[in-house]
Structures are given as structure tokens and as C-alpha cells.
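Anyone? Bumping this.
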Amino acid sequence: MNMPGVFENFLTEMSFALLEHHGAGAFVPIAKLPGWFTDLWGISLGTIPLAEVCPFLENFLLEAEAFWEAPGLAPCQSETWVERTSGGREIPLQARALLLDGKRVLAIFSPDLQFHEQVKMLQTARNTLLDHERLAREIQKKEILLHCIVHDLSQPLSVMHVAIDCLSEEAISDRSRQLLTLGKLASNQQESMIRDILHTFSDDLRASLNAGTEENASTDLLACARKTAQRLSPTFEAKRVRLAVVSPDDPAAICLVRAEESRLQRIFSNLLENALRYSPAGSQVTVGVESDGEFLKACVDDQGPGLPKDLRPEQIFGLFMKGKQGGGKAGLGLYFCRITVERWGGSIGCVSLPEKGSRFWCRLPRAATATVQPAQASASSGAGQAPPQATPAPARPLRILFADDQPDIRTLTCHQLKRGGHQVVAAKNGTEALKKIRAGSFDVILLDHEMPGMTGDQVAAAVRKSETGKKTRPFLIACSGNSGPEDVLHLKKAGFDTVLSKPFQLEELYRVLSASPAVSGAPAQPVKSPVASQAGFDTILARIGGDSQLLMRMIHTFLRDTPKRIAGIAAALRRRNAEELASLAHALKGSVSLFAAEPARKLAQDLQELGRAGDLTAAPAAFDSLKEEIANLLENLRGYAKQSPARPRSATTARRKPPRTRGKRRR
Amino acid sequence: MLGSFAVGKTSLVRRFVESIYSDVYQTTVGVKVDKKNVQVNGADLTLVLWDIYGEDDYQKMRWTYLRGASGYLLVAEGTRKATIDKAVSLEQRVREEVGVIPFVFALNKCDLLQDWEVDSAVEAQLADKGWNTLRSSAKTGEGVEEAFCLLARKMLG
């Protein structure tokens, strides 16, 4: 094959090796071979046994020969392969079979530039994939860690809560009671810290923070500050730091903000604990609430050393940020405050005060008055009354099965339930629980979710499956550390009626028990709404500044609207419209909260949750209980309205009334 | 050498052929062919090692490379469980493409045992399928020689 000189020079310039196939894997060069060819195989003249020296080409020749036999339209080209010279230099190569003037020709060339571009692109892509996989593994580890926090750290807390509650009900000295209160505060603080960690790190919980439950919630900022201050007052006293909550100039001012009550309490709790940490003995921490246009601003002022000079105020609310002197716990508290306040559309900040100390403030958007969170009603009792005691157990004795693999929790909870007059059967795991459930008859079944053998949800599913056709069904309560919305949904789908978040305290347990049909459906021992008592009306009145006219208007509005809401819920249930049920129950929950009717509020909330979960199985029973509660409440309110159309009582008097236990503790 | 990307196929070959190792991950593009002489059952044998790029969304493997293969080393790694799933699907694909040929399964990166997602139950499961499995580390050299020599013995029958 004769090559014109110009063409031959072109091939050499382009670094192409052009060889004619002479059969049996041997080739003869058509033109002068490039330098790399000699570097690799050490030959450049005569017949070259390419298939022998290059296994890759030996493999490719099978395709090339097929092409030479029957050339198609598609080119016959190899992928890139890499050869290494004796000096270790790597040369990327590609081969292409050609049919030129009837000759079987193989062109070999080095796609150097494209090859390096391709390597760069693939290296980036695969590094990114590996990073992604690593990140996914880290997230998985984090979830496992969260699970450990929830389960392993919460377990001892449950024991502590129940043990303290048990001791609180014993006849003990004031001093011992005071110490128990401190112990309870500490365990509550630890629980709060665990929840901070969860809320800071858990995506699910973060998502749940954004979910509907909070969007329409509103809370009384001042009442919440008072309640938190009351809860923390023993700790302040122990450090000899005064704690004062200052009322706004206008005592009748409505302090509702867009916020969820329990989280707002945690924000106050974190801000107050932070202030206390830096407050010298004998100084004062002051909480104030002031109007700020469309917002309300709460300020926590201390008389400590002021803000660290090396930190900008916004850095103080960063993740894992701890002060240098006597720093905080994990650097999560203030971070939690910031992300929560911002989520509600507010802002948070801090500043050193001109003379001494610092001010931490949060600014929250005002809310409408329709969906007041429950704590405001009870918050009036929070401005200096006794620390919360375990509420009495339901008066009607229940047959209860309690299953938990943690012996301490089992023993203490059973002990306390028995003291409440209930018949209690304990089980140490899911399998034993199911066996005992099948052998006995129970009004209420409390199941720990995570147990060896059968888990709580498996037991619940088995119980529900076996009760088809039965007239009565037990009230199933799940005890779980994982009580985010998705967890609750899962547990309710498994057959639970409600979920008790671990670590739980006795008052929560009693509240949940009181919602069981066996209790709420027992006419002999109805659970009285707090508002039934005169004290209940007094606290509501005090909260609205002693404005009895306003209270009467609230009562009349409630008496007018509530029957319609109840009828609406009944209709939604008949139509099995879960969404409508959730919406109506939510509205009812807000209005009963105004009257501190906790059982009714709880039942309305249960209905709301059932509606949101789309699971209406337990809704009729909950609705029946709710109707009874509402009937009691309406009766009480009518009675109050008849008996005392206007009972003037000044807000000042109400606030000045000396709280019983606080009076004991304070000089 | 077959397996998911970044399981250490190239590193195993370099450790075996040249006794060197680098911590830096360099993706393989294309095919690299190496040779190594070994003694198996008293006989001299030349292994021609085709280090084929790891198949993923960016590079699909040409199954023609397996034409004429006497056997293959199937590689996965312990810190990424998904690489085992890939190995399982590759083994099935090889059977479909070229029939049953000898192979050895190397679970690489055993120097990172503390980060492994794969537990011994998975290995036992693969062994139950009749796979010859062993742990290897291109970094420390553990199991590398054994893997290739075991494959050579199996290829010789």
C-alpha cells in the first residue's frame, strides 16, 4: 500500500499508528509509526504480532475481523484502554478498524486530551457520589444516636419522674418536699435538654415543627413567662437570685402571640437558665413583656457581667455555642430558641445593658384570640402557686395491664397505679403481655413500644385483630420515646388509641387514663372540669384582668357556638370526613381552652389528631366522651352565668392573692 | 476484576502486581491490562489481569471484555453495603453473558473494619450460595495474594 508523502506526514503528526492486518493477529505498518508505539512494544518495523503483545487488541480483533468481513455503517472502534511504558508512563489508546482500498487496516491513536477531560469529569462525579454516600451514612449514624438518646437516656428519666411523683404523695416534711421539688426540676431540665437535642437534630421533628399543629397556635406570652418563672423559682432561690415577672403597663392588654405553648415555655426556660448562669447571688433577673407594633417582645434582663466581648450577639445563638465563663450545657439551648422563634416568624437577640448585665429578647408576631393554647388558662395558676403535683387518678378502678421491659419503670408505675385503686397486671415483654391480655380482661392496656420479642405495635395489632366481633375493646396506650407525628401515626395505625410520650410523668399518665372510655364513660365518677370549681372561674377572671363583663361575653359566645360545633363534629363523623373533623375539633379545642377545661381540651385534641391521622376507628368513643365533658362544661357555665352575671374582682386583687406554697418558700 | 466503582479493584491489582498502594482514589477510565507470573500447584502461570472500570450510571461495561476470560475476581467493600448488591448482580450477569466460570469474591477494605456496614451474616449468606469469599485489604496487603492465588487454583481446576 503506497502512501503519498503528505498523507504519511499528516499521520505521523497526528500520532496515528496505521497498520495493515496480515492475519493471525500480525500487522505491518503502513506509515512510519509514532514514538509511543515503539516505547510501548519496542518494535516499529516488519511484521508485528500485535495480538500477542497487546491482550486488549487481541480481544478487539474479534470485533474488527467481523467488521472487515462485513463492514456496516457503524464504525468499529474500541473503548479506551491504557498501556504502560517500561518507564511507567500511562498512555490511553483507542483502536479503529478500517477498510481502505480493500485492505484491512487498524488505526491506533491516543485520545489524550479527551481522555483526561473524561477522567476529570468521572473523577468529580464519583467523588460526589462517594461524598453523598458518606453523608447518608453520617445521617444514619445520627439517627441511631438520636434513637439512643430517646430510648436509653429517657428510660432512667421515666424512673426518676415516677419515683419522685410517688415520693411526693408520701407524708414527708416540708424540707423533703422542697428537695423533691428540686429533684423534679432537675429531671425536668434534663428531659428538656434531651428534647432540645432531638428538636435540633432530628429532621423529622424539624419537619413536624413546620407542620400544621403550630401554624395556628397562639399562646399568652405573659402567662407563659409567669408559668416558666414559677417553675424555675426554686432554682433561682437556691442561687439567691431574685426572679420577677413585670406586667405590661396596660394590665388588660392581650398578650397572645403566634407560638406553641410548650416550646415557648422551653424558650423562656432556656433564656432564664442562661440568665441565672451568669447572675451573681443577690442580683435580680427580670422578665418583661412589651408591645412592639404587630409584635410582642419579651425581655429577660440579668445583672451579670454582660455579653462576652469576643462574640457578636448573633454568634451567641449559634449551634454548640457556649459562653467561656461558667458556660452552658451543650450549646443547644439558645440555638433551639433561635430556630424556633424564627420558625414562628419572630426574631431573637441579645445586648449588653448600659450599666450592668445583659438583655436577651425575643420578638413574636401577635396572634388572633380564637385559638388560645391551653396553658394560658392554667398559667394563671402558674404565677406563684404550688408546683404541679400528680393529679389524682380516675376515681373508677380500672383493670390495667402495663408492659415494659424496664423493671424499674414497671415496678414504680404499677405501684403508683395500684395506689390509685386500680387492678394492675404487669408484663415484662410483648409476648408475655399478649399472653396475659388473652387470658384476662382489661379496660386499659399500656404498652411500651420497644420491647424484646414482640414490640408494642405488634402486640396492639394482635389485640385489635383478635377483638373483631367483641362488644368491648380495651383502651390501648402506647408508651414511646419516639412520639413525633409520624411515630404517632404509625402507632395509631397499629391499633393504639393514644400515645404517651416517654419519659412520662404521673399527671400525664392520669390524664391519658382519664380519657379512656372506661373512665369518661362512667357516669358515677365523671371527671370534673377544673372550671366547675369557683377557683377555676377566679383564675380565668384574674387572667383577663378581672373584667367580669368580658368573662360573661366569653361564656355567652361559648354557649352560643359550642352546640353548633358539636353538631358539626357529629356530621363530620357521620360523613367520615377526617379533614373536617380535625378542623372542627381544633376550633373546639381552642374555645374550651379558654375555660381551662383540660379533659375536654384533651379529648378535642385527641379527635383532632385522629382526624389528622385519617384514622376514625377510635373517634366515636372519643367523641362520646367529649360530648359528656362539653355537657358538664356548658352546665357549669350556665350555672355561673345565672348565679353571677357580673362578679367584679380586680386584677390587682387577683394577682396579689398570696400563692400558698410560694408564700411558704419566700420570705 | 469486576465490581462497583471505588471498591479498590485497581488498588488490589497494583498491590498484587507491583506491591504498591496509594490512599488517593483515582477512578479508572477504560481498561488496564497487567500481567503477573505466579506459581500454582508447582506450575508457572501467567495471569493476565483485566482491570475493568466499575460500572455505574456514567460508564456501562462492555461484556465483550469477558470473552475468553478464564475467571474473575469479584470485588466489593465492607464500608458500602450497596457494593455487595452490585456484586451479586454482576455475578448473575456474568453467568448470563459467558456462562459459569470460576470466580472469587473479595470483600475489600478490611483495614476499615470499624466502619463496615457489612456483618459476617452477609458473608455467611454469600458463602451459602457457594461463593468463595475472603476479606482483603489493598492497603495492608491482607488477603490479596490469597485472593489471586485462590482464583488461579480454581481456574486451573
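Late reply, but here is one note on the structure posted above: The two ends of chain B are 19 Å apart (CA to CA).
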